[in-house]
Amino acid sequence: MTQPTLKIENLQTHFFTGKGVVKAVDGVSFEVGRGEVLGLVGESGSGKSITGFSILGLVDPPGRIAGGRILFQGQDIVGLPPHEMRSLRGRKIAMIFQDPMMTLNPVLSIETQMVETVQAHEKVSRKEARARARDTLGMVGIPFPEERLASYPHQFSGGMRQRVAIAIALLHRPDLIIADEPTTALDVTIQSQILAQIQTLTKELGMALVWISHDLGVVAGLAHRIAVMYAGRIVEIGPTDDILDNPTHPYTIGLMQSVPANMPRGSELKAIPGMAPSPLHRPTGCAFRQRCTFATAACEIEPPLDAAGNVAWRCFHPQARRAA
């Protein structure tokens, strides 16, 4: 059996504050193989981004990884010395942020930033690094890449800045990319173009990709598998078609019903009642039970991970499968 590029086992990332322990990520497990795209979806505050930051070792105090393993190409990278983590970050594992200005320095030219990124991990000449930067800009659809190397971030549109950020992530042809809602702020047309390019590049370069998003519509057209997060835990995971065609967990069903495209024209849009619980005061048992119309006394106990076929979920009342 082929070893997955990334395998996370029972990851726990907690923030130790004066008011208590915030369990932002609480027992997350999944894996992603070479050339595979995993969509990590859920509401804001569900722990998606902290999961991504944990993989790259970017969780700042008072947060830290309190338990679990992060296996990258078979090696547990939790607790690696800082210099070893830096050698992986950017070279073997890259991240694309939601706001490209978190990646780009506004006072440095694109050429300077990309060349320095190459030379930070490889002993190559500036000429060679510049050529790679130019070619990578062209790969992500930047027109006239030779000329645009001299430009500064403010001279690009939002969509083009995001393409530059993606190009920087691709400079070393990493084995794993974590994309944290990189198309959220873009218009639909630009979003579609970038998604198409990401799909092509992932397939051609054989990269593993974790795509973090709250937009099921985006994930539906991009990911091979979907993991649904709620209150720091994965409540359902499986192949994209299985999750979207026959959702099992009531929370997944609620997310599906909240997408306007899934509702008949003129019908009332359904919303999940209530709000997600605070990770500082997570309720006992199933964290979704206070918002779930199917909750019973059994839900006061934490549901175990159950599975059928390629889909796994945490729920005592898998409504969709029972109805089917």
Q: What's the topology here?
A:
Elements: E1 6-17, E2 20-32, E3 37-41, H1 48-55, E4 63-72, E5 75-76, H2 82-88, E6 93-96, H3 110-121, H4 126-139, H5 145-148, H6 158-170, E7 176-180, H7 188-205, E8 208-213, H8 216-220, E9 225-230, E10 233-239, H9 240-245, H10 250-257, E11 306-308, E12 311-313, H11 319-323
Parallel strand pairs: 3-8, 3-9, 6-7, 7-8
Antiparallel strand pairs: 1-2, 1-4, 4-5, 9-10, 10-12, 11-12
Helix pairs in contact: 3-4, 4-6
Keywords:
globular, Oligopep_ABC_C, alpha/beta, Rossmann fold, disordered C terminus, cell membrane, 11 helices, 12 strands, 324 residues, 31% helix, four-stranded antiparallel β-sheet, eight-stranded mixed β-sheet
